[in-house]
Write a structure and sequence with these properties.
Layout: H1 5-19, H2 26-33, H3 37-41, H4 47-66, H5 74-90, H6 95-99, H7 109-122, H8 127-151, H9 164-169, H10 177-181, H11 183-186, H12 190-208
Length: 209
């Protein structure tokens, strides 16, 4: 019986949570599905091809959440969009690294993009500026979550190098006291720092507009 493509993608997302992005391979996926590797290569010619489909599945599942609150003013909606995107990526181990650089393979997702762009153009932005705003928020979220997931695991465990006691041993408090102090902001309370950065982006758009 041929492999069901949606099941393969769902299993790949499960495997991502189990082993992480670097250890995710088509051969390991075949082992998890209890099939021979050629059965996977029939659907996906390489790992990047698989990642494109995995990212499409993630965004497809989250498309409604990403476009919630469209009745809000554009600035409040933009912040809501950024927060929803971050949560979508945090649902999976290495979620941000996984979707970074992927291409849109599901044509239905263009409807979600259309909704987001229309929200901004209806607010008076040109299509170019709407693109700049959305891509800036997207890039900020991707970069932020890549760093966040490098520090804190999906289960909430902080990686050894970033534990306060380990980091403080690497810093000369007399020569670089501020570098020591900001560790409290860099590696704790990611929600607060993310929202502060997102507000800063939206404020900058208002100033530039």
């Amino acid at each position: 019986m041929p492999l069901d493509r949606p099941i393969v993608i769902a299993t790949a997302l499960e495997l991502l949570d189990e082993v992480g992005l670097d250890a995710l391979t088509l051969r390991r996926l075949a082992e998890k599905l209890k099939v021979k590797a050629p059965a996977i290569y029939w659907h996906f010619k390489n790992k990047q091809d698989l990642l494109d489909e995995m990212a499409a599945a993630v965004f497809g599942a989250e498309s409604q959440r990403l476009n919630l609150h469209t009745s809000l003013p554009w600035d409040a909606w933009a912040r809501s969009y950024g927060r929803a995107l971050r949560q979508a990526l945090l649902r999976y181990r290495d979620g941000a690294r996984m979707v970074s650089g992927t291409r849109l393979t599901d044509p239905s997702l263009y409807a979600s993009m259309e909704t987001a762009l229309k929200k901004l153009t209806d607010a008076g932005f040109s299509s170019y500026m709407a693109t700049v705003i959305l891509s800036t928020i997207y890039s900020y979220v991707i970069g932020f979550v890549i760093e966040e997931q490098a520090v804190v695991s999906k289960s909430g465990q902080v990686a050894e190098p970033y534990l306060p006691e380990n980091r403080s041993r690497r810093i000369d408090s007399k020569k670089t006291p501020l570098a020591l102090e900001v560790g409290e902001f860099l590696f704790r309370d990611f929600d607060r720092r993310f929202n502060s950065g997102l507000k800063l982006i939206v404020k900058g758009v208002k100033t530039a507009n």
